Amino acid sequence: MVSDRSRRGRRSIVGALFLILALAVTACGGGQDNSSSGRGDSTSQAVKDAQAAAEKVLAAPSGWEGPTSAPKPQPGKRLAIISCAQLTEGCNRPSRAAEDAAKRIGWQPTIFDGAGTADKQLAAIDSAVDAKYDAIILMLTDPSQVSAAVQRAVDAKIPVVTLGEPAYTDARKKTIDQIPDVSHDWVATGTAIGDYMIWKSDGKVDALLLHGSETVVVKYGQFKGTYEKLTDKQACPDCRVTVKEFTIAGLTTQPPALATAAVQADPAINWVWCYDFCLANASKALIAANLQEDIKGAGFDCNAENLQLIRDGKVQVVCIADPRDWEAWATVDIANRLMQGQKAVEQNIPVRLFDKSNLNELSPTDLKDGWQGGVDFRAKYLAIWGVQ
User: What domains are there in the chain, each with its CATH number?
Assistant: First the structure.
């Protein structure tokens, strides 16, 4: 059996021979392919544009642009935190952070594990309504998919806040005024990752996108931004994209298997893309199968595991971070306002790209717990809440 490495080597040798032949033809006055020349010019400009855009996000400044005042929280309130699935750090991390924020202001928080299914998420919300919690926070849990339970909460006048469920769908647009959301610009983060991939591959991207389409902000945010960038022939004339879908229920097993099978079937693939836990597992599977050569990983969230993979040079080379703990505290801020008859306010959450070039700017806390946003947001919130 011929190894993947051998096949790649043969392709490199054949490619080099074709290049030598082409140069020889040109030197001897051979005909010029104007369309090929033009494509090269457009690719060069596309790479320059992508580099400029990516470098801007790599150097994005952080600062507090959140609220400057808030009603003082009333102690003793009971907060239900519905996690989309505690097995993934993208949901687990903000759930823990919201729990921490609630305890700091004298509330009694409870985390309910939605376990990645609408049925369990709906049952968790029903339990919170039945137990007469004072507020409910949905962590990356689409209220449109659990509308019956959410409507029960609304009818019971229990405030509901979401994290990572912006008005990307018609169903969500109908509820966004009643059920406010905390989000950064998920589409822009996907676009930035696409720009980085184009830049670092000199426009020669052959990407495998592992798509968890059950998650709204993946489908209509992260995936949309990257997919549209890489399939835009003006932005990347020489990009090729392969998409493989997985389910939340299969998060621990499907992405690693899909990545391994795809790279074995097509050794030309040079990028693997997914979010936090998914990309970490896919990266480790590629390494275990000795398929990591010439493969780069691009991801989201910048959780501790992903940052370590970047530091160690183990497939993943870049992530775009949103400070998920900060966003969780922002949901608690909004829940507090709603409980006291006020409206939600803009939270202005920052994002930033990280690769080996700027990892040294991360604090020990960032490396241990994931990017915190470059601001002591906890102190900011406690100050506006009037809590010591």
Answer: 78-183+324-348+377-385 (3.40.50.2300), 185-321 (3.40.50.2300)
